[in-house]
Amino acid sequence: MVQGSVSVAAPGGSGGRRVCFGGRFLGTAYSLHELTLLLRDAGLVRGDELDVAESGLIEWYGGGPEVWPRQGGGPDCWAGPGGPLVSGSSARTTLGEK
């Protein structure tokens, strides 16, 4: 069993979300699919996107697994010119265990 949690940051200026585990940067994901691949490569998950979205291993910042700005996902992903990048980016959502 994996000890610790994966941190998925709020979307950055490029629309990507930084992914870290145990203080180690794993990469930047631009979709739930890319996040799943990063976590598989790190040996943290074996399942598909649905398994990752429902995983209790992930701490989501600035929105949950539906927020991927480059794909147009999630409410309030992008602000207008001069506004904050992400609405409620300090909010943290942790998905429950299966």
Question: Can you offer a commentary on this structure?
Answer:
The longest helix has 10 residues. The chain is globular and about 30 Å long. The C terminus is likely disordered. Strands 3-2-1-4-5 form a 5-stranded mixed sheet, with helices on one face. The two termini are 14 Å apart. Helix content is 15%, strand content 21%. The protein has 98 residues and is α+β, with helices and mostly antiparallel strands.
Quick overview of this protein structure:
This protein has about 100 residues and is of the alpha+beta class. The chain contains 2 helices and 5 strands, in the order βββααββ. Strand 2 and strand 3 form a beta hairpin.
Topology summary:
Blueprint: E1 6-8, E2 17-21, E3 24-29, H1 32-41, H2 49-53, E4 58-61, E5 92-94
Parallel strand pairs: 1-4
Antiparallel strand pairs: 1-2, 2-3, 4-5
**Beta-strand fraction estimate:** 15-25%
What is the average per-residue confidence, as pLDDT, rounded to a whole number? 77
Strand count, sense and closure of the main sheet? 5 strands, mixed
The topology string of helices and strands comes to: EEEHHEE
What are its keywords?
globular, 5-stranded mixed β-sheet, alpha+beta, disordered C terminus, 98 residues, 15% helix
